Amino acid sequence: MLPQVNKILYCTDLSKNASYAFQYAVYLARQTGADIHVLNVVEQLSGDEKLTLQSYILNQSSREEFLHQRLNHARAQLQQRQDYFWEVIAPTEKALRTKIVGCEVVEGYPVQTILRRSRELGCDLIVMGAHEKGWLHTLLGSVAKNVLRESRIPTLIVPRPEKKAPAE
């Protein structure tokens, strides 16, 4: 007997495919009655990036403001995507918005943060989209690939939707 899905961790990088993957998270929540926790991880700056930031923004408070704005921008973009999704969804499905029990934007290393939050939240399933990074990551982005490899709970990686051929 498979375990019941009660909590879904939907991970988004705010790409177009992530929005497509959100449809799957909502569908699965409807089918299973599960709650959805939304997570966006803003990648932590590398040592070189921090050094560059210090070189160009000499004022400490200005650097802190810049870093704070990165998170605020991601929060605003996530809220905008959520609002749009619920605006265009079928009216009969709008009640599913109550299944979103948490929505957070955090700074960190994506793979480790996703896995840690899935454990902390007691999630039964991770849903995320495959990332578009060119031919090196033909099928999966490196984050999706590593989450899939390291996760101890089922993980659904939603591929990019097939592009429709133009009508002739």
Descriptive overview:
- The protein is α/β, with parallel strands linked by helices and 168 residues long.
- The protein has one domain: HUPs (Rossmann fold), CATH 3.40.50.620.
- 46% of the residues lie in helices and 20% in strands.
- A 5-stranded parallel β-sheet has the order 3-2-1-4-5, with helices on both faces.
- The longest helix has 29 residues.
- The chain starts with 6 loop residues before the first strand and ends in a 10-residue tail after the last strand.
CATH class: Alpha Beta
Indicate the low-confidence ranges by residue numbers. 134-139
Fourth-level CATH superfamily: HUPs
CATH architecture descriptor text = 3-Layer(aba) Sandwich
Terminus-to-terminus distance = 49 Å
- The fraction of residues in strands falls at 15-25%
> What form results from the Cα inertia axes?
globular
SS summary, helix count: 5
Q: How many DSSP E strands?
A: 5
Biggest sheet record: 5 strands, parallel
Structural class by SSE content: alpha/beta
Q: Give the tally of structural domains.
A: 1
Strand ordering within the main sheet: 3-2-1-4-5
